[in-house]
Amino acid sequence: MRYKEFGKTGMKVSALTVGTWAIGGANWGAVDREESIAAIQAMLDDGVNFVDTAPVYNAGHSEQVVGEALQGRRDKLFLATKTALYNDPLTGEAIKDGRRDTILRLCEESLKNLRTDYFDVYILHWPVPGQPVKESMETMMELKDQGVIRHIGVSNYSVEQIEEARQYGEVELIQPPYSMVNRSQEELIRWASAQGLGVMSYASLGAGILTGSIRSMPNFAPSDIRMTFYDFFREPKFSHTMELLKTLDKVAAAHGAPVPQVALNWSTQKSFIDTAIIGVRNPAEAHENCSGFDWSLTEDEMAQIDAAIDCTVGR
């Protein structure tokens, strides 16, 4: 495993972070709780030291699975969860709410779910339209002063929204999407990295399309997250990505490696990405992901892949 300094937080984090949206189980296809726990533990055994979750990943279920998986290991890793987004208890709908009372309530619930008394990283999950960030950030700083959280981050925020948040507290990291099939936030990411903010990217394998295991249009349920939140499994992006995979296949074959390892090396070898969040369902996937860091892409291969991305999926 490779490790990087996480912005100016003082944390030295693994190139991969365990992502746990899918193991929450809602609209991600079949998920097995015991396999999920084993997968998380396998990632940690292979050198990963950062785990990311959120209360909205199926009404706290993901946090509960993570809490069980981390028993006896909490002091050996960094743990991140999020706030200001939760599931309506009656409808399951995701509710954005960054008010003080909501953040404090969600914090208490997350501490209980995760079986811990502090978070290394606490993240405002999404901006809340029409709601000033001042109250949210002042509440986050209150929790930091109490020692409940150590570092504050934001996810899915623009440069302007980050700058506004920084007027009321210390933002130390961001969590944007970034992969070969989604470089839409690269300008923001480069700006944040230059500012000394930590960068943890999500959707690192494009919701699975960059694993190379899907070569024809899948028949996901209409409610599947891969059909609602992401656009990788719709045309024309799907066909463009299939063209990109031809280049990744060649690079993978040259290293005797599976395609996902090419995609993960490409992301994490970018100087502006500190750690890439990667979902994992079972120990076999965990070991495959982590063993990709036994080798690296050459500069020529990085350039070859960049050129292929520009010619196929673009930004």
UniProtKB/TrEMBL annotation:
* The keyword DNA damage is annotated on this UniProt entry: no
What SUPFAM superfamilies does the annotation carry? NAD(P)-linked oxidoreductase (SSF51430)
Question: Could you tell me which residue ranges the NADP-dependent oxidoreductase domain spans?
Answer: 16-309
Which Gene3D superfamilies does the record associate with it?
NADP-dependent oxidoreductase domain (3.20.20.100)
| PROSITE patterns according to UniProt | ALDOKETO_REDUCTASE_2 (PS00062)
GO CC annotation terms, alphabetical = cytosol
Asked if the record carries the keyword Oxidoreductase, the reply is yes
Task: List the keywords (alphabetical).
Answer: Oxidoreductase
Q: Which PANTHER family match?
A: NAD(P)-LINKED OXIDOREDUCTASE SUPERFAMILY PROTEIN, NADH-SPECIFIC METHYLGLYOXAL REDUCTASE-RELATED
Protein name according to UniProt = Aldo/keto reductase
Give the classification, highest ranks. Bacteria, Bacillati, Bacillota, Clostridia, Eubacteriales
